[in-house]
Design a protein that fits this description.
The protein is mostly helical. It is built from 12 helices and no strands.
Length: 274
Amino acid sequence: MTTQSKTTINQDLILAARQGLIPVRGSARLGGFGNMLRKELGQWFGTRTWWVQTLIWVLILNGISTIVMLNPFSPTEALQEVVQTFLPMSVGIIGIGTVITVQGAIVGEKQLGTAAWAISKPVSRSAFILAKMLAYTIGYFVTAILIPSTIFFFTVKALIPAPLPLIPFLFGAAITVLGQLFYLTLTLMLGTFYNSRGPIAGIGIGFIMTGLLLKGFIPMQVLIATPWPLPDVAAGLALGSELPSTWPVPIIATTFWIIIMIAAALWRFEREEF
């Protein structure tokens, strides 16, 4: 090995270390996945990002829901009002926050050239996308869903003398996870198709606002094939309310769309020219 080749290898190792990446062995399809995942999780939990995100979501979600609890309702009415506020609000507001935060996850790296560098060295294209997706899913689950939902549950127990069973509430919270994963996947997929943040944010937020504002005007046959009914399903499951017989359809449809968008993101990024 010549002195020049040794220098090139050392420079690559130094650059990889600066990016939080180290050479590892793995399959060609998912080469570098664990490495990339550690890097992405480090950006969430190795910096102040996790507690800043947690503070934002606790102030918004728990702040608004606590105000609702303090209104002069009967215990049963208070429980119903606060659950129908917290869970639907979680799906919508967390969805908007996800689009705003994640819109630059792919585009930013393409613009800076770090995506091209990463996939040319230790990380496969599939691993690049899937590691980002998993890291953002974990990050948002902890900061925007797990911690605020835990605080909400115990706040309800302390302030409202009406039972909120844990298991039904967990089912409702799981629906918010599914909704957040849909908007996360949508945003990352759009990042593989576009090279600027504008269309990504516009499509993502526009889709959420359409569901919030125009849901009552959309034919039921179309509505149940979208994630738009998920807020109502989440609240109904948490309260043990009677739901329409079609309530599982939006859950199945949303899961289906998530799989399709992951496949589309992987397909498009494999064909990205750097």
